[in-house]
Design goal:
Layout (H helix, E strand, L loop, with lengths): L10 H18 L43
Length: 71
């Protein structure tokens, strides 16, 4: 709530003060930039074999991921 202590501001001056206070309050609120993307390790799409990957799984650092593929 805004209270005028001294003077007689015009409606335009009061509107300017209210707009300024609202802009400052909006700038202090945390932003919601939308949903966050899941971390790559928790993304279930990474476990789905791609069309070119239907061959025999290749050994390597990520070979454990292919251990759950259907035979």
């Amino acid at each position: 709530m805004i209270k005028v202590e001294r003077g007689r501001p015009t409606p335009e001056e009061l509107a300017a003060v209210v707009a300024l206070v609202q802009a400052r309050a909006a700038a202090l609120e945390p932003r919601a930039d939308g949903p966050r993307r899941p971390a790559p390790w928790s993304d279930p799409a990474r476990t789905v074999p791609r069309a070119a990957a239907h061959a025999v799984p290749r050994p390597g650092p990520a070979a454990w991921r292919t251990s759950v593929w259907p035979a």
